[in-house]
Amino acid sequence: MREFQLTDTPADIVKVYPKASDFFKKAKVDFCCGGDQPLQTIIDKKKKPIDGQQLISSINESYQKWKEAGNKEVNWDEVSPSEVVNYVLENHHHYLTEELTPLSQFVTKIYRVHGTHHPHLEELFKYFHQYKMEMESHMIEEERDLFPLFEQYEKNPTEQLKNRIFNLNETMIKDHEYVGELIQKMNELTNNYTLPEGACNSYRITYERLSELEQNTYQHIHLENNVLFKSVS
Ligand SMILES: [Fe+2]
Ligand SMILES: [Fe+2]
Prior knowledge:
Number of strands: 0
Keywords: Cytoplasm, Iron, Metal-binding
Distance between the termini: 30 Å
Radius of gyration: 19 Å
Bound molecules: fe (ii) ion
Pfam families: Hemerythrin (PF01814), ScdA_N (PF04405)
Helix content: over 70%
Number of domains: 2
Domain Hemerythrin-like: 87-230
Structural class: mainly alpha
Largest sheet: none
Shape: globular
Strand content: under 5%
Subcellular location: Cytoplasm
GO molecular function, one term: metal ion binding
């Protein structure tokens, strides 16, 4: 069975074993925007040292159990770009389209009701809505301008199309960095979505849904940056 090494990149590890992202998130190791350097290099650059050997062993242990439970990994290198696009649309764009408006109502509600006693909710409200606005326009650009090019390129791989894809990818990667920062700020602000004592039901639902949003966003960006955008080279 495959064993991950510290020389592998977090992006490649998550590509094979998506649940490894939980370990990276806990260890504060970026696997989506800055995840294509060897894990050891990322660890060496960290201000707060972490035990890389222990991290990789925990991932390998969990991966082994996951495989033994009959799970199959997706070989993304064999999936066509248009299939990756469909996967992203179904699992990430659709999710955001359905989720952002109701979640906005929750974020707004807890800010209005509890903002006086919990001042961080004002910043949370602002970051969330910056994220919402950015992602909504970002998804329009991807769906309207970028994604159709992958299908065209599959049928007719011209140099001109390739350059258009490269240029748009670059803009999208910058957007990803920006939304990644907003997600990180929301996480820090809420201490990784830890509820204050006596939090009401709306507070709990908001934090749970924001935490899910974070997880979904990291997978979303990872798939685009590390699988889809690299499918054309
Ligand atoms: Fe996207
Ligand atoms: Fe994107």
